[in-house]
Amino acid sequence: MRARMIVLIAIVAVVAAAGAWAGWMLRYRPLTVFAWQTRLALRTSGLRKVRVAAPAGPQTVFVGGSGPVVVLLHGAGDTAGTWFKVVPELMGSRTLIVPDLAGHGDSAPRTGPIDFKDVMEGVEAVLDALTPRQKVVLVGNSLGAWVAMLIAQRNPERVSLAVCVDGGAIRGSNLHARVLPRNRHEARESVEQTRDRRSPHVPDFVLDDIVRQAHQGSLARFAATEATMNHYLLDEAQLREIAVPVRLIWGRSDRLVPLDYAARMHAALPSAELVVLDGCGHVPQLECPAAFVAALRNALELEKK
What we know:
alpha/beta, Rossmann fold, 8 strands, globular
């Protein structure tokens, strides 16, 4: 009886400790918890996790589905999990390759600055390893769109279509972008730049975690290499030379990379089409997934023609 009582007390203590830890994580690390949940959703949707060797170190990639290959590339400071609402909609008709970009999620480098070169070489290594002899559709959001456009420009033989979602490879036009907030007020301003004004209110404890990640997370590590990024920007003449079809999907409410940025790319790209999503901001695959998936499906259908 005494032994069973000791075991019961131990179990209760473990459960209490686990509950306290979970509560602490939800309160002080909500972005980490959300990332865990979204990455788990990729696995439960049927994607498997693989590792691919790259110059910066192993890259984590989620792979699954059947049919022509679509590669989904997330933005700076995000992870592969940002596509968790899109994956179930495409799994039945497409093979999906969803990497954590270099320095993000579980992909190397795990510490230190993240150079754009690391990100590019990481995606190229994934393509070399998983789709060595076939063209793919590249779908990129924000930083992912920048990478997709550069690969389409430099290696058109590897890309059948580039879909740029609220991002690209030209110089930005928002001189007041709030990317690395230093306090709760600036974090609120940063969030408001990326979302529609009618989207749900973001609680203060989430804003506090945004500030923490702005100092310690992958976005801060990527921003630390800003001085090297100009080498990877394209001018209008280079855009006109892109032979790969391009589709632009843009949230009308995006004030971080506003619609005039999309208009400049659209004017220079010879085969581009622009679709604007009302009520959506910088990350439409999360904020308005139904409208985004519909626009993406249309783009993929155009790719077949």
